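Regression test case RT-17, inverse folding.

Input:
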């Protein structure tokens, strides 16, 4: 049942998800008297704040991903298992996965979120999400393939649809990918596709609310919008996408946009598991937790990061923002609290320390909110670069990202414009 994880006489902490929170928790618990088992559907940690760089052909996927087994090579009492977690059986203290069942003493759900299509099956079937490295690679392939196809089709309407790019969602991801694609249109396409009429490549950013970057200050929102409009992005606020039919994005204002490049970054919902019923869930299907990140109604099950919602903190009555820093701080504190539980000590409640928010729009353009200090432009962009470079795991990855950034800055070019779709490897004859 325990899929080859030995019983060693220590309390077992099972962590579901190796994102920012799960990774921080695992690192803090290793070599501390617990047996730590990390379960994830990928065998690597992905640095999601820069996933748009992969989608826009700016970075190699390996630059923002780092294998879990490499991270924990020298850690004792740590085990990684590559599996999908399908259910939680709190009565029997076990999780159900694609490779079997696993007992736990403490369970920590840090599985993050998944794309929310708000129940529209048409959109879910055709839109390009951007929540994982695989999805970013798929988007890159489709965008580049559609540019190639637009040069060879004789149908003028189809050509325009192949050259229209529609991004739905004006949060940080939507703003960043819009800026990156705008720079590709300006600096890359004219050199790679000299026969293409670049002015016919249209980038639309559609947001249902009155402002971009709703989680940031009004100044940051206004500056991001100003930057994008100046870069040629068609920013459409107070506009709701109703459907996608016959190759067109249907808007609530009666307008439709023909496109084969339909990018959906308009919202997320908490990942779901069997036996985690609606009584445990709050807004956005996030798991309800108390001030110690303990799932309300369960004794030894915790949730951290984007998948949980904590309303106990006075300054965040609707839950904390779904940011990496929240997950990291929750993982750090929960590690200390689990150790305190074993020692019979009092647990510390979680209080989020807001270290600020940043979003990059493009070359020399970013916005930043730091408590009372609001910045935009070149200096905010430099701060964004430094913070993200420091946060990437692995010296090799840091060097590769830095080299790509410097190369792109000096040459106005992006070098990872490869259409590479993975294919299933054929087995030799006679091998099952």
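Golden output:
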């Amino acid at each position: 049942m325990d899929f080859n994880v030995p019983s060693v006489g220590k309390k077992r902490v099972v962590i579901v998800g190796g994102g920012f929170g799960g990774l921080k928790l695992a690192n803090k618990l290793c070599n501390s008297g617990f047996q730590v088992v990390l379960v994830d559907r990928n065998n690597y940690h992905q640095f999601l704040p820069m996933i748009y760089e992969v989608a826009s052909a700016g970075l190699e996927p390996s630059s923002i991903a780092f294998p879990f087994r490499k991270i924990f090579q020298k850690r004792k009492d740590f085990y990684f298992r590559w599996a999908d977690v399908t259910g939680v059986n709190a009565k029997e203290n076990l999780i159900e996965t694609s490779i079997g069942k696993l007992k736990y003493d403490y369970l920590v759900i840090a599985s993050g979120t998944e794309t929310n299509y708000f129940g529209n099956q048409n959109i879910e079937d055709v839109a390009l999400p951007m929540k994982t490295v695989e999805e970013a690679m798929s988007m890159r392939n489709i965008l580049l393939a559609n540019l190639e196809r637009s040069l060879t089709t004789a149908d003028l309407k189809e050509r325009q649809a192949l050259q229209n790019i529609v991004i739905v969602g004006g949060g940080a991801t939507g703003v960043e990918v819009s800026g990156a694609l705008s720079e590709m249109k300006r600096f890359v396409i004219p050199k790679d596709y000299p026969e293409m009429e670049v002015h016919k490549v249209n980038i639309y950013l559609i947001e249902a609310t009155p402002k971009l970057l709703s989680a940031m200050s009004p100044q940051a929102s206004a500056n991001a919008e100003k930057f994008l409009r100046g870069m040629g992005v068609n920013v459409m606020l107070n506009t709701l996408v109703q459907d996608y039919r016959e190759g067109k994005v249907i808007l609530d204002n009666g307008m439709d946009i023909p496109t084969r490049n339909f990018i959906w970054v308009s919202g997320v919902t908490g990942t779901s598991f069997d036996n985690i019923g609606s009584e445990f869930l709050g807004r956005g299907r996030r798991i309800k937790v108390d001030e110690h990140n303990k799932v309300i109604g369960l004794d030894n099950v915790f949730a951290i990061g984007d998948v949980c919602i904590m309303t106990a903190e006075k300054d965040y009555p609707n839950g904390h923002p779904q940011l990496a820093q929240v997950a990291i701080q929750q993982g750090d504190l929960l590690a200390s609290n689990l150790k305190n539980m074993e020692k019979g000590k009092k647990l510390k409640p979680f209080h989020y320390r807001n270290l600020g928010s940043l979003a990059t729009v493009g070359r020399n353009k970013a916005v930043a909110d730091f408590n009372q200090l609001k910045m935009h432009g070149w200096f905010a962009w430099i701060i964004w670069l430094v913070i993200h470079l420091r946060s990437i795991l692995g010296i090799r990855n840091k060097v590769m990202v830095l080299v790509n950034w410097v190369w792109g800055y000096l040459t106005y070019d992006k070098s990872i414009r490869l259409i590479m779709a993975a294919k299933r490897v054929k087995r030799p004859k006679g091998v099952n």
